[in-house]
Amino acid sequence: MAVPLQLDLLNIALALSVLTYYAGVLVMGLPVPARGLKRVGARLVMDSFVSAVLIFSVSLIFRLVDAVLELVGANPAEALQALVAKLYEYSGVYALIKVLGSVLSPFTLKLSSAVASAATSMLAILFSTVNLLVVFYTMVFMARDVLVSLGLVLYSLPLRIGRSAGAALIAFTVVGSVLIPLFPPWMEMMSSIVAPPGLTQRAMEGEDVYLALCVEGDYGSPSAAVIRLRSSAGDEYSLVTLANGCAVVARPYGGVRPGVYEVDVGYVGVKLRAEPSVLVVPDDLRELPIRGVVDYYGTIKAEGAAFPAPGLVVSYSGCRLEPQGVIRAGSSYTLLCRVERWPVAVLVGHVRACSVNVTVEGAHDYAINVYDDSWYGIDVRVVSIYIPGGEDSLAFSVDVEGDCDGVQPQLEAQAPPSLERLLSQAMVTDVLFILTWYFVYNMVGVLSFISLLIMLTYGLARALGGSYVRFPFPV
Amino acid sequence: MPEITEFIGDVTAKLVTAAWAVFLLSWSVGWLLRGSPLPSLRLKRTGQGIIEDAVWAAFWLAVGSSVFALIQYLASMFGAQPVNVTAAP
């Protein structure tokens, strides 16, 4: 159903088309024996025909677009979700790079700071490009009727004043509404083209099992957590989650051997109670669900943990997070919690570079203890709150002071021995390798997609705005 | 918005009137040249050309609104939904 604004615009476009037609006829009928002038008249008449055909075919254009979308099986709503998920993913990777920067030993820092600065500039490009796609999506799918009608108004202006601009607007809307929903399959295709050959080959040949593990809290996922697996046979693996709380490959590089593992999960600050605490990696599982790299996909539930911002975790026991979860206002986070049993204990962990201020509402009496700790070698500060009793619902306000996203390296701090266990040279190489693959894949995928969008828009605009149709009658 | 449409419609109506006037003028000028008592074949041919153009212009003027109706009909034949727009004058 046409919206009133669209109808108004179409009325104007048709009125302009009619005006152009009669102007053309008038010029054709002038008693001046000049061929050039007559040709101008014929061109005006033909332009009005073309624009009238477009005006009356507006609904046809959209039906065609919808038919194409159905044919290729693209869903616009899923595309928007995929685009927004990409934005979150990039923020997660950004946080990861910053957190890695804060825990690396001076030995590896020189290498990684160069990589980190290149990676953050690439992330900026990727983030703004995908953001641009979200803006395009909103324009195209919220107002495509109006955009095309406006394009037609410009297109119908006499003497081709706005023909190119109108054609560009129409082409942008049509190409955008067909192409932007194809973003997820496009990225999928790119991932199969740009997949790291070494990694895939090793996954295919090796006897070990590659696994992807995702950490989930009660509210969201951490962008940078550490998962440690330990088997009774003495095998030990450390995984650093990349984005969306998922780690895609285990150290050492040979992959994780089938077996039974104890799971140990920690965020930058706090060791989390992980569910399952025992992970069974099956030896007969040979399907490759995630882009041919991973054999086994698992989810580790971190009970009583919320991840309000990169670099900040709140872990609690004795209460349950309310459905509305975490309320954010600037750099202040409020967690609403319903008490299940007393006493309630809350741990707020963060990397030592940023400081947080915690207040509790709904309790008359509570004790706060602040201490510095290291978890798997990462220097952290933990705010521990003990609440013996109070009201049924509690609210923890966590004010982040300082730039928690841009965590600074803590070089002056003595690196604890366990740091080397987590981030040895091999581990850094692994992370760098995965990051490199990640950036190649994303840069190629996202930039080629936007180039395709621009090229197709330009081509269609040229085709619509060109003057290929000639007046078929004698003038 | 409707004011803009009305304004364009007014201009179009004036343009149509002017076009008919131009047709009459061309018709007259054409016959004047063609019937002038001057023994110049070129002049007569010019007059003939102006008359022909005027006749074509009158034809397109007369079928104007029918042309747009035809385009709308053809578009709907290919599956376009009818667009409720103001009729051509």
Q: Can you walk through the features of this model?
A:
The complex is a heterodimer of chains A (about 475) and B (about 90). Chain A is α+β, with helices and mostly antiparallel strands. Chain A has 3 domains: about 5-190 and about 445-465, no CATH class; about 200-305 and about 420-425, Immunoglobulin-like; about 310-400, no CATH class. In chain A, about 45% of the residues lie in helices and about 25% in strands. Chain A has 10 helices and 18 strands. Chain A has helices spanning about 5-30, 35-55, 60-70, 75-105, 105-155, 165-180, 185-195, 195-205, 420, 425-465, and strands at about 210-215, 225-230, 235-240, 245, 260-265, 270, 275, 280, 295-300, 305-310, 310-315, 320-330, 330-340, 345-350, 355-360, 365-375, 380-390, 395-400. In chain A, the strands form 4 sheets. In chain A, strands 2, 3, 5, 6 and 8 form a 5-stranded antiparallel sheet that branches. A 5-stranded antiparallel sheet of chain A has the order 10-11-14-17-16, with helices on one face. In chain A, strands 4-1-9-7 form a 4-stranded mixed sheet, with no helix packed on it. In chain A, helix 1 (about 5-30) packs antiparallel against helix 2 (about 35-55) and helix 5 (about 105-155) packs parallel to helix 10 (about 425-465). Chain A is elongated. Chain B has helices at about 1-35, 40-75. Chain B has 2 helices and no strands. The longest helix of chain B is centred in the middle third of the chain and has 37 residues, at about 40-75. Chain B has one domain (about 1-75). With about 90 residues, chain B is mainly α. The chains are: A alpha+beta (about 475), B mainly alpha (about 90). The interface of A and B includes residues 19, 38, 52 and 475 of A.
